[in-house]
What does this fold into?
Amino acid sequence: MSGDGTVAVDPRLLEILVCPVTKGPLRYDREAGELISDKAGLAFPIRDGIPIMLPDEARKLD
It folds into this structure.
């Protein structure tokens, strides 16, 4: 965790991760602690610094 309570994710990891549904790019939402797939409309949680890339664990975006 960083000093402000958000979860830090290794930038090198973010460079290689893609959405498991669309295989498209993800963007990191530091405040929410999620990886966002705009194309799939899903937000994947990050728990203890580990992205949970399971579609069943993702939150649907409004």
